[in-house]
Amino acid sequence: MVDTIAIASGKGGVGKTSLAVNCAVKLCLDKKRVALLDADFGLANAHIMLDQKVSASISDLLDGTGKIDKLIHDTPSGLKLIPGGSGVLELMNIDSKKRWEVIKSLDYIENEIDFLFVDTPAGASDSSVEFAAACDKIIIVLVGEPTSFMDAYAFIKALNFEKKVERVSIVVNMAKDAKDANNSFKSFQKIVSQFLDVELINLGWLPNSKLVAGSILTRKPFILNSNGDAQLNARLSEIVTNTERVQSFQTNSVRFFDK
Ligand SMILES: Nc1ncnc2c1ncn2[C@@H]1O[C@H](COP(=O)(O)OP(=O)(O)O)[C@@H](O)[C@H]1O
Ligand SMILES: [Mg+2]
Asked: Does residue 233's CB lie within 6 angstroms of at least one atom of ligand 1?
């Protein structure tokens, strides 16, 4: 069965896409079969981080001119990328029926993959909530700023109220060190537990590292960098291992692969 994992945040610019791409590539290095759906439709950029020229995108699927097999890009690490289309304004406001079509279309690769990562749009929009709840596991990327806490909280509240989600995982990004990351997790957990009956799982953290920004400029995931930062790579591995162990949550939502 495919393990499906959403990477979400609330606030934009916190490192969602970078985490999704590197976790997915890390699993490919571990000989797993992995796909990444860039569900940040209209503003998609996972293909840029993976240095992929994109000819077809999800808009071709939705207007009926293309089939999902034409959209799947095989990248050098083995990761299958399904790009979301960038600069396509009408893709930013697709309705629930179209989201369902996208979710169903992935059935085509069910037997070819072990993991599906879904990079969701920022904000607590219907689209980000539905795509996140359609996965088995939801990772929320948090940075140690009040605005990130507020937006992540709003997103978890929407997941809980609308989709009955009662378990989400947290990754603290751009932390100074383990202590700083742990403090951010604890403060956020305190806020959430005051108002919501949602279990938060601490998956780990990533340091603030120039190599992450550099990897985006060179369009090569940092986990593939042979002169990489051992600390950064070790923290990413820890996040991936912990993600595999997390249990799926219950929801009333439509899910990938008819689960
Ligand atoms: N751990 C990190 N250390 C330093 N910079 C980071 C880190 N994670 C992300 N960034 C930077 O933050 C910016 C936004 O990252 P991105 O993955 O596009 O975020 P999002 O998908 O949440 O909008 C990028 O410029 C990236 O280089
Ligand atoms: Mg992004």
From this structure: no
